[in-house]
Specification:
There is one protein chain. This protein is an alpha+beta fold and about 300 residues long. It has 2 domains: about 180 residues, Regulatory protein AraC (Jelly Rolls, Sandwich), CATH 2.60.120.280; about 110 residues, Arc Repressor Mutant, subunit A, CATH 1.10.10.60. Helix content is about 50%, strand content about 15%. It has a 5-stranded antiparallel beta sheet. Strand 5 and strand 6 form a beta hairpin. The N terminus is likely disordered. InterPro entries: Homeodomain-like_sf, HTH_AraC.
């Protein structure tokens, strides 16, 4: 039976995933380690899939990766991360080498990582924003993968889950470090992305009609730049020290100060002009960023 390109296949459990891809039952119901070359792609598999658990995959055939508006080819492969509920396409290559860790959120319960894992923005990156690793970095990551694999295969004892958890957290911390290196490595490309981001943001705040619809969201700007929202924020934070939302708020303050200092419009009129339904919301945001109310700023400026 051929796959239905419009159908979305949802995997609720690790066991269901293993069965679909011709793998033996997982050693543990909430975490599993898979070698990609052992996976068999069924013909009936839908074009799009969604998991109820985290996926961390190292693939040697990631191929093209996107930075800003440019694509670069990587023969060495890289790491791809997927969070629960995130839709992704089925694998393009039938025989890919690499590793796959499936991690159910319930496995994290009672550990600090259950909350901290949401802070790793790369779980929301798109596939073409994969982490590319050097040979030395690959060796480090492979050593962690192998420890997780061996631990899951060995006899379970009181320390088993603690050991696996510590290695998963180590893997995520290494990934954060390597992504920061990647932002710097591609600084020239990301500088162009930052330049375009600044132009899009400037254009938005200079358009009265757009401005009256409210401030742009992080997702709006990411869509304009053809990158994921998480990638944009992490890249900006890494290279400018501020995330996307902070850049938006800074530009909002600049615009508000300009209007306050060059016009006689009331605070309410300025608030409506800048897309705020309630003047109090405008005043609250302005004061949180400047430690002054709009009127206090106007009086001090004059």
């Amino acid at each position: 039976m051929k796959s239905n390109p419009h159908h979305l296949h949802k995997f609720l459990s690790l066991s269901e995933f293993h069965k679909m891809f011709g793998l033996p039952k997982p050693e543990h119901p909430l975490v599993s380690f898979i070698r990609l070359e052992d996976i068999e792609l069924p013909e009936e598999l839908s074009e799009n899939m969604v998991l109820d658990f985290y996926k961390i995959a190292y693939k040697d055939t990631v191929g093209s990766a996107k930075y800003g508006q440019h694509h670069y080819d990587f023969g060495e492969g890289g790491l791809v991360f997927t969070a629960p509920g995130q839709v992704f396409e089925k694998p393009k290559h039938k025989k890919t080498k690499g590793f796959l860790i499936l991690l159910h959120p319930d496995f994290l319960l009672s550990y600090p990582l259950a909350k901290k894992i949401k802070q790793y923005g790369f779980f929301s990156y798109s596939t073409d924003e994969a982490l590319q690793v050097s040979e030395k970095e690959k060796e480090t990551l492979f050593s962690v993968f192998n420890i997780i694999d061996e631990e899951l295969k060995s006899r379970t004892d009181d320390f088993s889950q603690d050991v696996v958890m510590s290695q998963i957290e180590l893997l995520l911390n290494y990934s954060s470090r390597y992504y920061k290196r990647q932002f710097i490595t591609f600084k020239a490309v990301n500088d162009r992305l930052i330049e375009k981001f600044e132009k899009v943001l400037e254009s938005y705040f200079n358009d009265d009609e757009e401005l009256q619809n409210g401030m742009p969201t992080v997702q709006n700007l990411a869509d304009e730049l053809n990158v994921s929202a998480s990638y944009l924020s992490d890249m900006l934070r890494s290279l400018t020290g501020l995330n996307t939302q902070q850049h938006i708020h800074n530009r909002f303050i600049e615009t508000a100060k300009e209007i306050l200092s060059t016009t006689d419009l009331s605070v309410s009129e300025i608030a409506y002009h800048m897309g705020f339904e309630y003047p109090q919301s405008f005043t609250r945001l302005f004061k949180s960023k400047t430690n002054q109310t709009p009127l206090e700023f106007r009086h001090s400026f004059n």
